[in-house]
Amino acid sequence: MLDGKTIGFIGGGNMAEAIIKGLLAGGFSPAAIMVAEPTPFRREFLTSTYGVELHEENLDIARRADILLLAVKPQVAASVLAGLEQVISPDKLIISIMAGISTGFIEESFNNGARVVRVMPNTPALIQAAATAICPGRKATQQDLEIAREIFSRVGTVVTLAEKQMDAVTGLSGSGPGYVFAFIEALADAGVKNGLPRDVAAQLAVQTVVGSARMAAETGEHPALLREKVTSPGGTTIAGLHTLENGRFRGLIMDAVDSASQRSKELSGK
Ligand SMILES: NC(=O)C1=CN([C@@H]2O[C@H](COP(=O)(O)OP(=O)(O)OC[C@H]3O[C@@H](n4cnc5c(N)ncnc54)[C@H](OP(=O)(O)O)[C@@H]3O)[C@@H](O)[C@H]2O)C=CC1
Ligand SMILES: O=C(O)[C@@H]1CCC=N1
C-alpha cells in the first residue's frame, strides 16, 4: 500500500530521525522521504546521514508529499498547521505523532475535511523495536489506517485503538523508554555504589533489562511468574523486592504513567 508513495516529515528532530532510520533499515527508499526542518545543522546531518531530501520550508514538501507526517512539538502545532492550510487537500493523508494533539484539532485547522491518523510511537523505532498505537480521525479511511499501520510496522509493533485511549498510551509506551532508561541508569549507579567498575555495571544493567524484556516477550509468561522464578525463599531477590515495595515502586510507576497521561491531556488542543 505504501509502494510509490512519498512521505514528507514536518520537523526533523529525534522522533522523525528514529522513524526515518527504522524505515530505511526496513527497506524503504530514501528517495521517497522528504523532511522540512528549520535548523541548518540538522538539515545537513539528516541528508548526509540518511540520503533523504531536506528543505527549510514546510510548504516545499507539503505540496509534494503524498503523506505528511507531523513531527513537531505539540507547543508549535497550531502555528505549523496554520502555515500548511493552503496546501492541504483531501487527497493528502496527514499522520500526526504529536503528543496530546487530537485528530479533531488538526481537522479543524484544515477546515476542508483532512484525512488524519494520530499515532503514538516511541524512540526504539530507531532500532525497529518501537511500540506504536494508531487511531483514525473522522475522515480517515480504512486504507489510511492501513498505510499508517504499514509505516509503523516497519519500525516495530502496532496496535489500533480508540482516540480516547491515546493519552494513556502516551503516558505508558510513548514516554516509557524514558522511565526504562532512568531505571537502567539507577541500576548501574547502584552497581557502582556496591563497588563495581562503571563500565561493567552499565553493561550488566543494560543486559539485565534486555534479557528480562526479551524473556517476557518470548515466553509470553505473566511477569509475576517470571519474577517468582528469580525469587528464592529467604534469598537475595526478595530482600531487594521488599525494599522496592517499601519505596512504593509499583505505585510510583503508576503515578508516573498517570502524570504523563495527564500532561498529554493538557497538551491537547481539544
Ligand atoms: N521523543 C519521543 O520520545 C516522542 C515524541 N513524540 C512526539 O513527536 C514530536 C517530535 O518530538 P521530538 O522529535 O522528540 O522533538 P524534537 O524537538 O527533537 O523535534 C522537533 C523538530 O521540529 C523542528 N521544528 C520546530 N519548529 C518547526 C516548524 N515550525 N516547522 C518545522 N519544523 C520545526 C525542530 O527544530 P528546532 O530544534 O530548531 O526547533 C526540531 O528539529 C512531538 O510532537 C512529540 O510529542 C511522540 C512519541 C515519542
Ligand atoms: O515527552 C514527550 O512529550 C514526548 C511524547 C512522548 C514521549 N516523548
Short description:
The protein is 53% helix and 14% strand. It is an alpha/beta fold. The protein has 2 domains: 7-168, NAD(P)-binding Rossmann-like Domain (Rossmann fold, 3-Layer(aba) Sandwich), CATH 3.40.50.720; 176-267, ProC C-terminal domain-like (ProC C-terminal domain-like fold), CATH 1.10.3730.
Task: Write a concise keyword list for the protein shown above.
Rossmann fold; binds NADPH dihydro-nicotinamide-adenine-dinucleotide phosphate; alpha/beta; eight-stranded mixed sheet; 12 helices; ProC C-terminal domain-like fold; binds (2S)-3,4-dihydro-2H-pyrrole-2-carboxylic acid; 270 residues; 2 domains
What does this structure look like?
The protein has 270 residues and is α/β, with parallel strands linked by helices. It has 2 domains: 7-168, Rossmann fold (3-Layer(aba) Sandwich), CATH 3.40.50.720; 176-267, ProC C-terminal domain-like fold (Orthogonal Bundle). The chain is 53% helix and 14% strand. It has 12 helices and 8 strands. The protein has helices at residues 14-25, 40-50, 58-62, 77-84, 103-109, 142-153, 166-174, 176-193, 198-219, 223-230, 236-246, 249-267, and strands at 7-10, 33-36, 53-55, 67-70, 93-96, 115-120, 130-136, 156-160. Strands 3-2-1-4-5-6-7-8 form an 8-stranded mixed sheet, sandwiched between helices. Helix 7 (166-174) packs across helix 12. It starts with 6 loop residues before the first strand and ends with a helix. The mean pLDDT is 96. NADPH dihydro-nicotinamide-adenine-dinucleotide phosphate (NDP) binds at residues 10-16, 36-39, 42, 58, 71-74, 76, 80, 97-99, 120-123, 174. NADPH dihydro-nicotinamide-adenine-dinucleotide phosphate binds next to helix 1.
